[in-house]
Amino acid sequence: MKILYAIQGTGNGHLSRARDIIPILQKKGDLDILISGTQADVELPYPVKYRLRGLCFIFGKKGGIDIMATYRKSNLKKFLKEIRNLPVEKYDLVINDFEPVSAWACRRKNVPCIGLSHQCAVIHRSSPHPRNKDLIGNAILHRYAPVSKAFGFHFRAYADGIFTPVIRSEIRYATAETKKHYTVYLPAYGDKKIIRMLSEIRQVEWEVFSKHSRKAYRKENISIHPIENRAFVKSLLGCQGILCGAGFETPAEALFLKKKILAIPMKSQYEQQCNAAALEDMGVPILKSLKKKNLEKIKQWVNNPQFIPVDYPDITEQIIDQLISDAGSRSGKETVMSESGLKSVKSMKEEMLSPILKPAAK
């Protein structure tokens, strides 16, 4: 069986999870790997056949998406060309981790595309969602990488087809300690903003992993490190707690390691708002932003030893086996979309960008 595994390259969580999924897929068939996106700091130790630009949102330094950088990085012509040129019809199975090029290439050629991602679980009606509805954000999650069947990962198994997180081997089989430092991973905030806030809590040693710095440096009780997997894992294993965004893999790993968490979801990022709702439902404290008015809440969290108990068994291969069994064999002739169909792909991309471009026009 020839398998294409397509992975989103914006952020590090998708690629971190892929490190444990890829060896299992290699046992199941002849595997090719695709990565699209430009914002990942994690490298895969496996050969990648397709490295594409795709569509990505660029992290800013004030807690959200950098609107203008996202607009400048968007290349519709190249995106449509990548969709047309990707030979998804040559594969017996296409597995998609929220990756738009392969998803829309499959849609264009009537090829089944099986979703295996956190996003598939986030949009499920049984999963927690924020009180304030975000119709545009919800629409983006549904349309960004459409799939024909979905398997999802979440903090809890909220429904059939939703599974607890894949905990990568270097975390699952490591020995955790409790040292003096706290780990910080807030990629949507700049170093100056983080330093200005955390320097107010002088009794704590902060280890900050920065998306905006290429070299390590120190400022009083705060050490800044460029993002590097081995160093981050070491810091996480030894920390008292982690201050992080409301992504998925990092909080999931911290929960597994029995580390306490304080999460700050990115602004105008619906997926993180959904994650924050799920974490809050579990008892994890949530901040709306990294502002001085929340300084006391950070201090209270530092002084509170509470962590949230979870059970995340190693069932990754069972999930892959179920996915392959449910996918079955693909049959029937390939049907290429009409030109009007291709225009709908263009409209999808413009529609996806409009929620973050509209605020810039105000």
Describe the 3D structure.
With 362 residues, the protein is an alpha/beta fold. The chain folds into two domains: 2-167 and 315-361, Rossmann fold (3-Layer(aba) Sandwich), CATH 3.40.50; 170-302, 3-Layer(aba) Sandwich (Rossmann fold). It has 14 helices and 13 strands. It has a seven-stranded parallel sheet, sandwiched between helices. It has a six-stranded mixed sheet with strand order 10-11-9-8-12-13, with helices on both faces.
Which CATH architecture of the largest domain?
3-Layer(aba) Sandwich
Q: What average pLDDT do the residues reach? A: 87
- Extract low-pLDDT stretches: 63-68, 329-341, 355-362
Structural class: alpha/beta
Run of helices and strands: EHEEHHEHEHHEEHEHEEEHEHEHHHH
- Within the CATH hierarchy, at the fold level, what is the topology of the largest domain? Rossmann fold
Instruction: Compute the number of structural domains.
Output: 2
Shape: globular
Number of strands: 13
CATH class of the largest domain: Alpha Beta
What name goes with the CATH superfamily of the largest domain?
A: Glycogen Phosphorylase B
